[in-house]
Amino acid sequence: MATVLGAYGLALLVEHEAGLRVDSVVQAVVIASALGRVQRLFDRTDRLVACVVLPGAAAAGAELSTLIERHHLAGDAAFVVGVAGAIWVRRFGARATRAGTLVVLPLIAVLVVPAGAVPVGGHEHTAWAAVTALAAVVWGTTVTWAAQRTGFAPRPPSAKVTTTPRAPRRGPAPSTRMAVQMAAALTAAFAVGRNLWPDHWAWVVLTAFLVCSGARSRGDVLVKGAWRTLGAAAGTLVATAVSGQFGPRSDTAVVVIFVVLAVATWLRELSYAYWAGCVTAVLSLLYDWFGESPGDLLHTRLAGIAVGAVLGVAASWLVLPIRTEAVVRARTAAALSGLGELMEADWHDGRAVRTARARFAYRVEQLATVTAPLRILAAVPVPRALSDRWHPDPFTLRSVTALRRCADPVDDLTEAIASAPAALTCDPAVTRGRARIAAHALTVRRSIGRRPTPPDPTEPTSLDRFRTPEPPTPANRFVPPALAALDTIDTQLDLIGALFGPPPVHTPETPTTAASTG
After folding, report:
1. At residue 255, does pLDDT exceed 50?
2. Are 208 and 185 in contact (CB under 8 A)?
């Protein structure tokens, strides 16, 4: 909110001095609101990229707003291509993903200002939009840096930690699938919104975008669509009941908007429904500020939200769908890969051990994020005839539970390694435990990826690889905790292996490949 209020103050100053329209202030607030959240994961390179990408995207968003008002078809097509392209670039890694997110922010601001609320201008405000966006990046960077330096906000994980192994896939990449889904949803939303509600089409388009945006799988988009619809409906009803008390151009309404936006940011970590409800209330209050009666538009807003959610869910389920099971398998295999990297790391290198531990923890959290919507679906009562198709398979939920149970043993093992690396690497029992878990994790990854075990299998990880030439040291007090941690991890790997089943049996016709998963 410090980022938002700073950008808001600067946008007001620029609007007054340069004689701009009020939509420039709205664009600055929308950009700063999302930037304040995503920039927490930025490193120095990401911030430099933001200083280039976001001003250019803000200028493009200003031009796009004018284009949509003057030439609907061309503007709508440019919006769809811009959003879908920003999603497609995710195939190039985490840094490209964050850059694509920045590109989308000014485009979404185009949907926030009510159609016809401000006069269509020329190109004179384009450069100021870029300047305001650059100032928002600089101010947001300053605020975030101060918060991280003082410990108020956690530091972002390094690129080494967030890197995820890429496995060969069949068919289009997930980024391509998500881009095509978004393009289909937005195209349908523009078509339906323009024909059914010519003056309020943006509600349909905005909802379709929010439902499809960041949807990791069919289950994820289904839950998000439901939360978006229910939360938005509740937010619209509440805002309609209170917004009429303020009137057009009310300063009190502006204060209430920022208060609700702060609450939305706070509650988003608890449930997406809170975020959807609060943001919809903010938009309703904004429409009231522009002079449009919320009561007269209540049915239109609710209908537009419902239609947009249906279009978003339909696009994600019918157009190159991403199966939830495939996402869970990929994330589980990535977490197991991180566990194997910890076992195979040089335990005398403290930095390598800490990086492997952080990478494992990060990937487990990513898996938990994917399976969170499935826990909601599993709790929904359905007829017995539909139970098998509706409720997720057991491995989708139990695998993340088993991996999370490895978190404490991994922490204990890492602490023991940091305290006595020489003693642990020379102990025969610890060496056997490391090799056993490394091999076990590899076997489970083969099961997840349905990759056959190589013919005439040998020990995947040699014991000599972990053994140091140093003479054994006397018994060390850190050896028993390390052995206990290794045994606990091995037990959880047994559980995961039982969930996914044994690897396929190799036949002469089956090519052998490295264990991986799609």
Report:
1. yes
2. yes
* 165 three-class SS: coil
Q: Which two tokens stand for residue 288?
A: 């009231």
Residue 184: which of 196, 195, 176, 172 has the closest Cα? 176
- Cα separation, 88 vs 159, in Å, equals 21
Cβ(344)–Cβ(380) below 8 Å: no
pLDDT bracket for residue 269 (50, 70, 90): confident
23-38 vs 94-109: helix crossing angle, rounded to 10: 160
pLDDT tens digits along 61-108: 888 988 998 899 999 999 999 999 999 998 888 888 888 999 998 888
| Cα dihedral across residues 226, 371, 95, 167: positive or negative | negative
CA dihedral 485, 489, 491, 495 (to 10 degrees): 160
Nearest to 118 by CA among 286, 1, 247, 268: 286
Instruction: Write the pLDDT tens digit of every residue in 190-199.
Output: 999 999 998 8
pTM (predicted TM-score): 0.83
Residue 4, Cα to own-chain centre: how many angstroms? 21
Helix (H, G, I), strand (E, B) or coil at 154: coil
Coil vs helix vs strand at 102 = helix
Q: d(Cα 404, Cα 379) in Å, to the nearest integer? A: 21
Amino acid letter for position 57: A
